Amino acid sequence: MTGSEVSPSFRLAYVPGVTPAKWVRIWNERLPEVPLTLIGVSAAEAPDVLLGGGADAGLVRLPVDRAVLSAIPLYTETTVVVVPKDHVVAAVDEVCADDLADDIVLHPLDDILDWERLPGQPAIERPATTADAVELVAAGVGVLVVPQSLARLHHRKDLTYRPVTDAPESSVALSWPEDATTDMVEDFIGIVRGRTVNSSRGRRPTTPAPAQPQRKRPDSGGVRRKPAAGKSTGKSPRSGSGGPKGAKRGKPRRRS
Q: How far is CA 254 from the centre of its chain?
């Protein structure tokens, strides 16, 4: 059901690692009269926030329950392993899961990757959060496999990361309650999909400018044009000179 009710603001939830700045900037340019409020939530609580009315839409991590939430996938992230800078992994460009077989791979309780089997050796305890796991990596306890945006979010000067080619990946999507597709949600959908402000699918189409009448080229209508200077008109420069071309003029020669 599409609502037309006016809301004091548009509330956008977003999960750690997602950067909504570009879309927020476009929103503020196009709809300056509707403030956009950002609401940071964890990946696990994002669906409940949306269904409970705590936000109008959210930038979440898939999967979500498509029976109650609509979702538009936006992008899929590279998965990386976070290691100390002096770790052997730091010397290569990328690794596979088997390359971590001898490492303790930390598995935080808020992990968002869908593992069939976690690589490496299990830790004695699972850290509560990804931030806690990063601290343990810095302490030399183990390594951590996460989406690249989370590695950047928790960046430390003494740590680095490398892509893991065969690890599960995480996709980010725009999601909102299935029965609450409001006009403002449609506006934000248009922004993330790259529609222009004049897109026919937007709800604020601008009136097209009237077509300019085409200027008609003047019809010569048989009007004779004055020949350009220096061009011949086909007449002899001297009237009455019907002599052959090249004949010389002068007095007749007297016969002796």
A: 101
Tell me whether strands 10-14 and 36-40 are parallel, antiparallel or unpaired.
parallel
What is the rounded distance in angstroms from the CA atom of residue 73 to the CA atom of residue 172? 6
User: Closest by alpha carbon to 142, among 80, 81, 91?
Assistant: 81
In this structure, are 84 and 150 located in the same domain? yes
Neighbours of 169 (CB within 10 A): 13
Determine the structural domain holding residue 46 and report its residue range.
10-76+171-193
Number of compact structural domains in the chain = 2
Q: How confident is the model at residue 205 (pLDDT cuts 50, 70, 90)?
A: very low
User: CB of 227 within 8 A of CB of 233?
Assistant: yes
**Dihedral, CA of residue 104, residue 107, residue 112 and residue 115, to nearest 10:** 60
Nearest Cα neighbor of 58 from 50, 48, 68 is 50
* Confidence band of 84 (pLDDT split at 50, 70, 90): very high
| Global confidence as pTM | 0.74
The CB-side HSE value for 69 (13 A sphere, CA atoms) comes to 26
Strand positions, DSSP E, the chain: 10-14, 36-40, 57-61, 69-76, 79-84, 104-106, 121-122, 143-147, 159-163, 171-177
pLDDT of residue 190: 96
Residue 143 CA from chain centroid, whole number: 32
Please check whether residue 118 lies inside any domain of the structure.
Answer: yes
> Cα separation of 46 and 59, whole Å?
9
Torsions phi, psi for 214 (to 5 deg): -75, 135
Q: How far apart are alpha carbons 173 and 167 in whole angstroms?
A: 20
Tell me what the pLDDT averaged over the chain comes to. Answer: 85
162 in a domain, yes or no?
yes
